[in-house]
Specification:
two-stranded antiparallel sheet; five-stranded mixed β-sheet; alpha/beta; about 15% strand; about 325 residues
């Protein structure tokens, strides 16, 4: 039954199906408090407050919305990620649009299931015309072409150095060389950002135990999960070198707004959520001017919106050049 309910499409008229989901209200400890390792789906299984999905089919797109009251037909709860994956694999939908009001855990469950089923996952974000891609088409095309060439050249030149970094990571601690994490990309599309692993294996599961109820960007100066090699790599932003692969894939730009992690994206206020339409970058105006000295999420977004409103090819070139001394000095990095 679960699989068949996602099997049909309705080109013009929407059909609704509901299933309960769980929103965790569990309080997290402070940044410097002891922490324990939870199951990745703990907060999904904690039945504190039931909310319901409403699924709408439109032109091979699956729109996911939230409702407080169940409607018919009724679908039992998806208590495991593989059930959702199976449903999506049997469905002809090509992409899934998720509400930005979902919790981080539920967004991750949907993103993982979509990736395994070969479907694209998007956050539902307000449309905006104030994007360089729309206002300066020729300059934008020139920027993307040059950035792709620079990223390919840098990967070729830096590959021996990146192999050395990989060896240091393996020697320091057990675990994978690369770390990937869901981020919000252009038009709200979810993608996996690539970084060199700078923390102990499994550190992502301890994120909220370390950050606690910390407001603003989730950055902790004395994060106990970071290894000694990772600390050195973070100081000079060497952990971000694999993001050149994201640039080649078209998921990121060399220069652009900060790519928001799910735990930051879900806390954005509706007034600045349209910023999620922009293509994110490895470096940007926030990184060279404020970085970790400014951690208010909405303030960072307003800086990014100002950058997008005044965008020019020459400004991106200036940001790229100013990034070099900032990286060498370790400005605001931890």
């Amino acid at each position: 039954m679960r699989s068949n309910l996602l099997k049909h499409t309705y080109p013009r008229h929407a059909m609704t199906i509901t299933l309960p989901i769980e929103h965790s209200t569990k309080q997290q400890p402070d940044c410097d408090s002891p922490f324990e390792s939870p199951s990745p789906l703990d907060s999904l299984r904690e039945r504190h407050c039931a909310v319901y999905y409403t699924l709408l089919w439109r032109r091979k797109q699956l729109l996911v919305q939230l409702t407080e009251e169940p409607k018919t037909p009724y679908l039992p709860p998806l208590e495991a990620e593989h059930w959702l994956t199976e449903c999506l694999q049997r469905s002809p939908v090509r992409l899934v649009k998720l509400p930005a009001t979902l919790t981080e855990v539920n967004l991750e469950v949907w993103a993982n299931a979509c990736a395994k089923a070969g479907k694209s996952a998007f956050l539902q974000v307000p449309n905006t015309k104030a994007l360089p891609k729309k206002t300066s088409r020729v300059q934008w095309w020139l920027k993307r072409s040059i950035e792709w060439a620079i990223a390919a050249l840098l990967l070729l030149v830096l590959s021996p150095f990146m192999l050395v970094l990989s060896w240091l990571i393996v020697k320091q601690s057990a675990g994978p060389i690369l770390f990937n994490q869901w981020r919000v990309g252009e038009r709200g599309k979810l993608f996996r950002i690539l970084k060199f692993r700078t923390m102990v294996a499994g550190a992502e599961q301890l994120h909220h135990q370390v950050m606690g109820n910390q407001p603003g960007l989730h950055k902790c100066e004395n994060d106990p999960r970071i290894t000694s090699v990772g600390c050195w790599m973070r100081k000079y932003s060497l952990d971000e070198l694999p993001q050149l692969i994201n640039v080649l894939r078209g998921e990121m730009s060399l220069v652009g707004p900060r790519p928001w992690a799910l735990y930051d994206a879900v806390r954005l206020s509706p007034e600045v959520r349209h910023r999620l339409n922009a293509l994110p970058g490895i470096t940007g105006i926030w990184q060279i001017t404020r970085r970790s000295t400014l951690r208010d999420i909405d303030a960072v977004n307003r800086i990014d919106l100002g950058y997008l409103g005044e965008w020019s090819f020459s400004q991106d070139l200036k940001i790229l050049l100013l990034t070099i001394p900032k990286v060498i000095s370790g400005f605001g990095a931890y």
